[in-house]
Amino acid sequence: MHSEPLELTWRVAGKVPAGKIAVAVLIGAAGLFLGDGDPVRLVLALLAATGLVGWAVRDLVVPVRLTAGPDGVGVVTGFAAGTPSPGTGSSRSAWTAGATGASAASCWRSTRATRCT
Q: What is the rounded distance in angstroms from the CA atom of residue 26 to the CA atom of residue 70?
């Protein structure tokens, strides 16, 4: 029996960017209200908040951070640049649905040991 290749994706949960944005708002408010008129504190708080918002935007624009399939593993690095790792012939049977009954976790461990070190 021949089965279709299995492609797995791991994505950022929707509450993670929402949490980052909420913390950015809190940091910005703290810098504004607790800065005591010191511009350095305000600028540092706004820089930290801007960094968190940028990080949250990345999670919203490219929610899929990791893919694994018969052709290899793809990892998104930086803001949104992908880094594909070509697959090896030995892992192809592990990624077909139902072949040997291997779970995604065991396939990920074997893939990480061979291609993601």
A: 44
